[in-house]
Write a structure and sequence with these properties.
heterodimer; A: alpha/beta; five-stranded mixed sheet; two-stranded parallel sheet; B: alpha/beta; 2 domains; six-stranded parallel sheet; two-stranded antiparallel ribbon; 36% helix; 9% strand; binds iron/sulfur cluster
């Protein structure tokens, strides 16, 4: 059994170097154990296996001989690694997934690519389908983060600062940073999450340790206006809850200020619609000046 | 009047416009350290209301005072709803403060007609100008244009906006003149044609290689109200096909005529035909992405789409001789006609079958709705046999009526 120790949760380079080395020395997927190096202080608590491996890993590109060499196919030393563009694209997204199986799954698919031509085209293959599903989940998480982060403004020393709390499902913080930087370049903003935070001060980005939502201030005057807007842009005559929840699942609601209105809006919708349907049309309460098409016909407001 | 009250009135006045898309424009950001905002080309829905609609833009009217008397409209001159008018600066500040908090992608501004079409359009354009020129706002701007406004004003609108729209409102000229007497169907189409010309021109490089001036890079769209008049689906779809063809619209939005406060006695209210609206969107997609012609799609009696199944399934049932389709041999255009098979899965099948034969399991793992497809397809490990011709097939494929989902909000 060979164990690979990655530097952090999204260590694409570490994974790639290890995968290349392992494939070229013919280490079969079921003989590799992938794990992420814990933070420095907890390294002593890591398993025996992982400590041993750290040494091998630190030996740069030293080639290791798998203990179960007997079962593995012949090493492919000297051969070129077969990596398709589709694989690289998928791998970039999949590595951000929170599931621990991602490193092993990627390695297994890369391994199979060496033997099965056109594997990446087979979206119906169980492994490839799983990669697609994982990449999709990551893509969705990124998209929802762009959509659902809500900043609150505080003024510190005369400068407005924008703070948000968000809980992404996958390891997407660093990946999403360029989006917020490109959009809010001139703002001083911070997005905190349980695992890590990031702050853009208008010039550079700083990663911060994870935090707690309590650090967010309670009030922001514009938020009240936003709630008014949400309440009034809703049309009670077209309740479509499934469509709403499909795109804005409940798990996001506790960080969306407007979500506190949803229940009430739903509860009132039926009565509001019925009231509109029951109402007798009224005659206009003001004097109506008939509109004439030519502007110079003297129309007044 | 307080800002909050104005916002309430002018959001109430704007909610019957279905479009809230923030997609299809050029990509921009503010990385040069100036201005604020970005667009990705994809569009982002920042929230959803319980009506299932995407909230991407701050969608408001500049004012809901209006001189016209379109009977379906909550803002018509004869309606007794409360009225309000934003100042230009109020809209600008509201947009910016919502944008900074990441509530929205930008602004969708329209307006009731006050004083004159030109005056109104000028005010609307001025909001966009202030956002772009004075605040260097780089987010999304969608402006509703007034067809009777001067071409010069439309040209200015296109310089600042990412998307322009002119609502066709009703599918036929006859309905328009009955229900919106002040509107001029010919003027609407003339304006659409003008916009198309300018949008097209902005995409061509001139002979000298100079870039032509920017003009509504996200194109133009329109909206048609469904269920306020007696027009059938066949006529609606052929109007859409005509609009897509002639003016190259990015989208035609269908808006089920919905109860409004203080309705007109001329147009009695009813529950909005949401399922019909949903089927029209599906049919619209078949025309734009699946190679269907508008006249093929109508299979029901009296020129209407079937309500109890999607239009592709309904079409397939009437054309059973074309099936079963061999998933491993059929050309792309034929695969696109298989009920349940979407554009993405067709791509996947085409790509996979160059490597090896596609089997039933593959379709399951591609997450295709296999049960719906089985009567119509043939695979190495599946043949529909007699099920395709069974008289009971239509009954089996009927959908239990659930609330429809809104489609394609990003396009
Ligand atoms: S012009 Fe007609 S549709 Fe537009 S706001 Fe006025 S009444 Fe409504």
């Amino acid at each position: 059994m060979e164990t690979v120790y990655l530097q952090h949760e999204t260590d694409m380079e570490g994974w790639r170097d290890a995968a290349r080395r392992l494939i070229l020395s013919g280490v079969a997927p079921h003989d590799v154990y992938w794990c992420v190096r814990p933070a420095e202080e907890s390294i002593e608590n890591a398993t025996q296996n992982c400590i041993v491996q750290r040494d091998i890993f630190s030996m740069a590109s030293a080639e290791s001989v798998p203990d179960s060499a007997g079962q593995a196919p012949p090493p492919m030393e000297g051969q070129r690694l077969m990596v398709s563009r589709q694989f690289v694209e998928l791998a970039r997204a999949v590595i951000l997934h929170s599931s621990a199986e991602r490193f092993g799954l990627l390695y297994r698919v890369l391994w199979r690519c060496q033997l099965e031509r056109g594997l990446m085209r087979l979206t119906g293959d169980a492994d490839v389908a799983r990669l697609h599903a994982m990449a999709k989940a990551v893509g969705r998480d990124k998209h929802k983060m762009k959509a659902f982060v809500r900043f609150r403004e505080t003024v510190l020393d005369g400068h407005p600062r924008y703070l948000a709390w968000f809980e992404p499902e996958h390891h997407i913080m660093a990946e999403i940073a360029p989006f917020f930087i490109g959009r809010f370049t001139t703002m001083d903003w911070t997005i905190m999450s349980p695992r890590m935070g990031m702050r853009w001060d208008g010039k550079s980005l700083h990663f911060l340790p994870g935090g707690k939502p309590e650090a967010l201030q309670e009030e922001d005057a514009s938020e009240a206006l936003w709630l008014s807007y949400y309440r009034h842009i809703f049309n009670p005559a077209r309740l479509k809850l499934k469509a709403m929840q499909k795109e804005m699942p409940k798990k996001y609601w506790h960080n969306l200020p407007e979500a506190e209105l949803i229940e009430e809006l739903i509860a009132e919708a039926g009565a509001r619609t019925q009231a509109m349907l029951d109402r007798h049309p009224e005659v206009p309460k003001r004097k109506i000046v008939g509109y004439k098409r030519k502007p110079d016909d003297g129309i007044i407001e | 009047m307080q800002l909050k009250q104005k916002l309430e009135i002018l959001a109430d006045a704007a909610k019957y416009d279905a479009s809230c898309a923030s997609s299809g424009t050029e990509q921009r950001n503010s990385r040069d350290g100036k201005g604020i905002g970005s667009t990705t080309g994809m569009g982002i829905c920042h929230s959803y209301a319980p009506d299932g609609r995407c909230i991407s833009l701050l969608k408001i009217l500049l004012t809901n005072f209006c001189l016209y008397d379109c009977v379906y409209c909550v803002n018509r001159v004869t309606s007794n709803v409360p009225r309000a008018r934003f100042s230009i600066d109020e809209v600008v500040q509201l947009t910016l403060s919502f944008y900074r908090r990441n509530y929205i992608e930008g602004l969708f501004l329209s307006s009731g007609i006050i004083q004159s079409p030109d005056y109104t359009m000028e005010q609307v354009v001025e909001v966009a100008r202030v956002l772009r020129e004075e605040h260097d706002f780089r987010g999304y701007i969608h402006l509703k244009t007034i067809p009777d406004a001067s071409p010069e004003l439309l040209a200015r609108a296109g310089r600042y906006a990412d998307r322009l729209s002119i609502n066709i409102e009703l599918p036929t000229a006859a309905s328009l003149s009955t229900l919106a007497p002040e509107k001029d169907g010919v003027a609407i189409r003339v304006s659409m044609a003008r916009l198309r010309e300018r949008i097209d021109a902005s995409k061509d490089k001139t002979l000298t290689g100079k870039r032509p001036p920017r003009f509504s890079p996200g194109g133009q769209s329109t909206q048609m109200i469904v269920g306020a008049d007696a027009t059938d689906d066949r006529t609606i779809l052929s109007t859409s096909a005509d609009l897509y063809g002639q003016y190259r619209l990015r989208r035609v939005y269908y808006s089920a005529f919905s109860p409004i406060p203080d309705a007109s006695p001329v147009l009695p209210l009813q529950s909005p035909p949401l399922v019909r609206e949903h089927r029209l969107y599906q049919a619209d997609w078949l025309m734009r992405f699946y190679g269907f012609e508008s006249h093929e799609i109508i299979t029901g009696e009296q020129g209407m789409l079937a309500l109890d199944m999607d239009p592709k399934t309904a079409w397939a049932l009437q054309n059973r001789a074309m099936f079963p389709v061999d998933i491993n041999r059929a050309p792309k255009a034929t695969l696109l006609r298989v009920p349940g098979l979407g554009v993405r899965n067709v791509q996947r099948i085409l790509s996979a079958r160059r490597v090896r034969a596609v089997r039933l399991d593959d379709l399951v793992r591609m997450r295709a709705p296999v049960n719906r497809m089985l009567p119509f397809i043939q695979l190495p490990d599946h043949h529909p046999g007699a099920t395709l011709d069974a008289a009971s097939l239509p009954a089996q494929l009927k959908e239990t009526p659930t609330m429809p989902q809104q489609l394609g909000l990003f396009l």
